[in-house]
Amino acid sequence: MVAALSPPRILPSGDAAITVEFSRTIDAEANRRVLALDLLVADQALPGVTETVPTYRSLLVHYDPLQIGFEALGDQLTALSLKPLPEAAATRRWRIPVAYGGENGIDLEDVAKTLDITPDEVVARHVGGDYRVAMIGFTPGWSYLSGLPSSMEISRRQNPRLLTPPGTISIGGIQTGVQCLAGPSGWHLLGRTAVRTYQLGRDPIFLLEPGDAISFVAVDQKTFAEQDRAADAGEFVAELIS
Questions:
Q1: pLDDT tens by residue, 50-87
Q2: Which member of 166, 186, 191, 211 has the greatest number of CB atoms within 10 A?
Q3: Chain centre distance of CA 221
């Protein structure tokens, strides 16, 4: 017998958005419900809904208050969220190349010391993880991944950097991520990828989507430089393996 799903919290977010919250912590099951509801809302084409934004544990639903009210939309979203979760569908899996350490991963040595293992073991553990895109946000293409091995969990940096390179692969807390554009970060930089998860003028502009599975593979600096030139010309570089 399938256990009944618990109802989410329906929270106002300003006067034209609703947050459907499934958990107050990062949780794989909550994220699964977020993504399932996001698909249902799109499939139902609910009147008044203008945009949805999936996160780790909640779905932000923007709506036009002239077309539908908070309570009416909240009731519809609650009803949809209590529908049985669909069977796991076929998932896109991407293999993303990463040049670890050196100038590409300036925190690799420090992470190894903190975890009391060698830099090579840090790379091996990170490559060995099975990841899933839980959400995209912060800056265009910034992909937050669940699935970091518990042996890799590490507190974020005490002093965040104001600028980190594009393509940075980093870890922080129980997460790892793929950073597309240069920007600030308080995570630990392990390496860089040439993959552009966001690139204007390319079809698609955004490469990864929530729910996609991710595997990493280590490459050397020469390969990274070659892939960086190819990605700059619009190639995906990431390999779609299933």
A1: 999 999 999 999 999 999 999 999 999 999 999 987 76
A2: 191
A3: 25
pLDDT at residue number 242: 77
Task: Report in angstroms the alpha-carbon separations of 71 from 21, 30, 31, 74, 82.
Answer: 15, 23, 24, 5, 17
For 14-51, write each residue's pLDDT tens digit.
999 999 999 998 888 899 999 999 999 999 989 999 99
Whole-structure pTM over 0.85, yes or no?
Answer: yes
Question: Cα(29)–Cα(242) distance, rounded to whole angstroms?
Answer: 23
Phi, psi torsion values for 207, nearest 5 degrees: -85, -50
Place of tokens 């390496």: 191
Question: Cα 219–239–169 angle (5° rounding)?
Answer: 50
> Using only C-alpha atoms, what is the Rg of the chain?
19
Three-state secondary structure call for residue 235: coil
Contact call for residues 191 and 176 (beta carbons, < 8 A)? no
Q: How many Å apart are CA 78 and CA 99, to the nearest integer?
A: 44
Q: Which of 203, 211, 213 is nearest to 242 (CA)?
A: 213
Angle between helices 119-127 and 108-115 (to 10 degrees): 90
User: Is the Cα torsion angle 196, 197, 198, 202 positive or negative in sign?
Assistant: positive
Question: Looking only at Cα atoms, what is the longest distance across the chain?
Answer: 59
DSSP class of residue 32 equals H
Element of type H or E holding 230: helix 221-232
What's the sign of the alpha-carbon dihedral 21, 23, 25, 27? negative
Neighbours of 154 (CB within 10 A): 19
Indicate whether 102 pLDDT > 70: yes
